[in-house]
## 1
Amino acid sequence: MRERIGRVSRKTKETDITLSINLDGQGKNQIDTGIPFFDHMLDGFARHGLFDLEVSVKGDVEVDSHHTIEDTGIVLGQAVAEALGDKKGIRRYGYFILPMDETLALGAVDLSGRPFLNFQAEFTVPRLGDMDTEMVREFFYAVSYSAAMNLHLKILDAGNNHHMAEALFKAFGKALDMAVSEEPRIKDVWSTKGSL
């Protein structure tokens, strides 16, 4: 089995990001985005998706959290796409319903080569730590479009806003882990088109 690791660096006037992801990892991670709550969310994604993830971001957090979080989403999506390569032999689809105390979140992924985000979650506070809650959607939008995946994330039962955000990140990790996992019965790309 080939090594499925994506490494991407991206530097703009707003952010300087270096990121690597191993799709066949153990959930080990080193994350420093300058936004502790966002670090916590990425830790949950990596740990529960069993991805080894290293993220280093220097962003203009003195402005707000927007550029750092959105650009990290772009880079993560690019790294996932790089790690997947031609997508031969993967399950392609993944889904998970994740409970977190009173909160229930659904995550579903199709590594189709077509970007789309369906995001349904209503937060009742503007911020969680130093992270604007509206940036949860913006992060997943950036990931879905830069990785060219269909991504559906929904809060089925709402509650504590911290639990809602964390459940979404973990559900995404679990669903993506299923989608990128290898299917031994499939040797080619799982598509009637012959490519993804």
## 2
Amino acid sequence: MAVKQTAGRDQLGAFAPKFAQLNDDVLFGEVWSREDKLSLRDRSLVTVVALLSQGLVDSSFRFHLESAKKNGITRTEIAEIITHAAFYAGWPKAWAAFRMAKEVWADEEAEQPHGGVFGLGAPNDAYAQYFIGKSYLKPLGGENGVSAANVTFEPGCRNNWHIHHAGKGGGQILLCTAGRGWYQAWGQPAQALSAGDAVVIPPEVKHWHGAAADSWFSHVALEVPGEDARSEWCEPVTDEEYARLG
């Protein structure tokens, strides 16, 4: 299908009508549209490198960077393309190209890996029956009876209502490390959580915690030593209860 382009006529139609017609109808309408010979993505790659090699990092270069992004070239790929071309086209030209490419791909800045500073860990399959959504667990070891694990929830994931029982001592401490989530004790309003927050959960308090609907969430769960400590898993947090949190 022909690539529709009107920039030539829009900008030069009155001043240079033939040039405008060749730009819109031939260059884009015929050459760029030969997708059975070379994909739009690959044509974007060739065009970006050709312009970069000439040092033409002007508005037309930005247009072709934006087209390259639209045609499927990712932030990681454009960085590698410009890096590779720098050795053949020239280092200063690559610097100029990078300044513009960073602006075009600004909304795709590399995300920190899910799981925060401790990493994602493995799927939390052993406790999956007590969670709505998918969670991940990375044990962090423990000494002197204190155990710790980094728990990561995908967006919308939460655990069931549960209680940490203990004859003496016990309970849990949550140290939030990444993303946004929720904690709620039975009969109390839900508490929004984000990185840097800490929650002390006494024993015998029925509660739940998990991610916000639109965010991954990680926290370190510290088990407070206690005698006869055990966890009782209760009913799930319903979709209606969860939706009311906003």
## 3
Amino acid sequence: MDLLKGKKGLITGVANDKSIAWGIAKDAHAAGAQLAFTYYGEPILRRIKPLAEQLGSSSVYSCDLGSDDDMQSVMNALEKDGPFDFVLHSVAYTEKEALRGRYVDTTRKNFQDTLNISAYSLTSLCQHLHNAKLLAPQASVVTLSYYGAEKVVPNYNVMGVAKAALEASVRYLAMDLGIDGVRVNALSAGPMRTVAAFTIGDFPYILDWNKNNAPLNRNITMKDVGSSAIYLFSDLSSAVTGETHHVDAGYHVVGLRAVRGSVKDLKD
């Protein structure tokens, strides 16, 4: 179905063809949307430009979401592509070393950098788009989160704290922008085999644990995430805002490890 036919979208955070943002962008294009992209860094440009061209887009703009000057400059450039009916915020950063070991060892500088890029960048993006009148009436803003924002996930550490701040920001932004009909939601995706995910310590173990204990007894696919994003972008979710929508095969409802079969058959 062409759920996004005639709609314009802004996609941030595509790093390569394995990125969740790229999977969502492909599904949005297939649903009929026209897309613009932002990236940060010359190496990313070399990867994202041909990907955008696959979707018929030449609207690819450099933007450091951690810089107000950069944000203002890209707003001026985006005027020819907007206003946008939907926006995907898929930006996060922390030092690789911070995704191994203990949270208590987090440095002040990396905490500040992580919260700035991974959480505040959503607020800044909404602020600049809103002030530039680049959010269409009834626009939908979606950001990507993870269960580590709610519960302790080994090695996720400071990124879990940042995602918790991100999800809180979603609720406050939903309230502030709702008066203009703009919806803001988070999509909390289960673990997936992306390049970024494998920087987390013991990630293969996390994948196996999720698969073996999720109610659906499997890990999620890019299509699972893309379909949920299209729902949140489209008019099908016209009364949904301020939500964290879990796409994790049901893992977030599990309190203990899954019991498959009779309890008496369990072995230590």
## 4
Amino acid sequence: MSQQLVSGESLDNNQTKAIPSGKNIHLTISYDGTHFCGWQRQDKAAAGKPVRTVQGELEKALEKLAKEPVQLIGSGRTDSGVHAYGQAANFYSSIASMPAESYIPALNSILPKDIRVREARLAEPDFHSRFSAISRTYRYFLYPEATPPAHLMPYVWPLRRRPNIKTLNQMAACLQGELDCTTFAAAGDVSPSKFRYLESAVFYPEGQQLVFEISANAFLWKMVRSIVGSLIHYEAQGKDAAFFKEILEKKDRSLAGPTAPPQGLFLWNVSFSGQRRH
């Protein structure tokens, strides 16, 4: 399992490496995370069986095309059971004659059905999916009724009640600007800094579902799921925005609510334009 979703580190002089040769191809990828042990390739087997990861499957497909090992760079890591609509990744192609857009049908013809390449384009040689990213957006899907339809079960959190969206959004409005997010950092998070710059956080209805959307420069390990679980927990207890702000400012993980389950979470978009916060 990965150690954190994404890092907020900047690419400084100590991290700069020689740019590999070949064309730099930028991919936008969607995947159903239900049967994956997260994004990050894992070289060790579990109980004697290979660990299935999204990065691992993509690199196997790229190796079939290139006839040589290919390293794929992701914008960030997602944990077991977490999905993506717009994960970003890049690799350097040694196939000079192959246009970037041709990787869409070529890879999709090899990949398992729970991974799809949505876009492929030629990027600048120094483009880096992780360090060039300005912000990430996640969406978390909740189903307020008792029993979601079967086809939605792997992608929503069934709440069995309908929360007060106004109260949720009053609390979520506190999640804006540069904040110390220690309260919502998992115990195993190894990030040197718990500060993140949050652009927005909001709940809104979408059909019978309730969606939580949050954007930031980067996220701590399990941070989004911790925020969602805490907000739903606090709202059920009748808490308000003042209480949530106090919890956030105390920077005490023990005050967070239960962590929301992984199946409702999607890495929705990675943006490479706008103001870099840090």
